[in-house]
Amino acid sequence: MSNDQQTGARQAEPQGTAPERNLQEQNVAPEPSTAPPAGQDSAQYSTPNAELETLLTEPSPAAEEQAPEVRPARPVHEPQRGLFGIQAFFTVVIFSIFVITFVVQAFQIPSSSMENTLLVGDFLLVDKLHFADTSIQGRLLPYDDIHRGDIVVFYFPVDPSQFLVKRVIGLPGDHIRLRNKIVYVNGVPLRESYAIHRQWVPDIYRDNFPAQMTYSRGIDQRWRTQLPHYLEGDQVVVPPNSYFVMGDNRDDSEDSRYWGFVPRANVIGRPLVIYLSVKESEPDRPSDKLQHSGQMAHLLQLARWDRMFRLVR
Predict the structure, then answer these.
(1) Tens digit of pLDDT for each residue in 89-117?
(2) Cβ–Cβ under 8 Å, residues 172 and 145
């Protein structure tokens, strides 16, 4: 080898090794080259940074298809709608129970004992506030006392599960007797425009109460034994906190003549209004007890329109 070739070799060697020597001395790693390799088009060559940017900015179609659908979050107040509906339902139920218990209640007349004031098939709204208890709680509202001639709804003393409706004839302390179907209270005959008499066949006990008790039928056994304790001569004396009641249809009414007095605690209210009246579909009279309002079939054909919303007096 000539001297020139040796010199060229020595000159070429420092050109390729000088940068690496400097980097090793400075402990700095060489930066990767971003230039495309020799003989490769720059348009087809991309660096790792460029590929990362592409992935971040342009998601692949497969990723778009597999991405779950994003639904809007439920409003915070939506679960409260169901809670509000439940609260409203129970509010209506509680209010209805309160009204039925303390304010007004519906009944149906099943018998003719109060004709012509109340007919079979009349549907009543009973005012439960008017004659409420006169205890401390009762004095919070302007409740009224029971007077002679008032129509009252009460628990049947013989069977408290049943309701009856009658007219008050005797107040506590009154002396009651009947003579030839005429009612005498404290020796004075009552003027009763509401009373009717349809039986021409006489009944000594019914028409001349309390006479001839032993010969009458339909008397409650308990009342048969108690009645003599309330007699003064030929009159019956109404005890304290009790009332003597009778039906307006005097010849067809099972009332205080047959089962005794009505305690004040048994009175639940007075009939307020006839909100519906239906003609009697069956001639047989099952009982003298009130019934709760229930089925109302053929109202248009059987309704007594002239009795709708009539006040009971």
Answers:
(1) 667 767 566 555 556 788 899 999 999 99
(2) no
Question: φ, ψ for residue 34 (rounded to 5)?
Answer: -95, 0
179: helix, coil or strand? strand
Distance (Å, rounded) from C-alpha 270 to C-alpha 127? 5
For the annotated catalytic residues, the residue numbers are 113, 166
List pLDDT tens digits, range 260-292.
Answer: 999 999 999 999 899 989 886 555 555 566 655
The model carries a pTM of 0.64
Distance, in Å, from the CA atom of 152 to the CA atom of 268, rounded to the nearest integer, reads 8
Amino acid at 300: L
CATH topology for 99-311 is Umud Fragment, subunit A (2.10.109)
Q: DSSP E strands: which ranges in 190-266?
A: 231-232, 235-237, 242-246, 262-263
Checking phi first, is residue 143 left (phi over 0); if not, alpha (psi -120 to 50) or beta?
A: beta
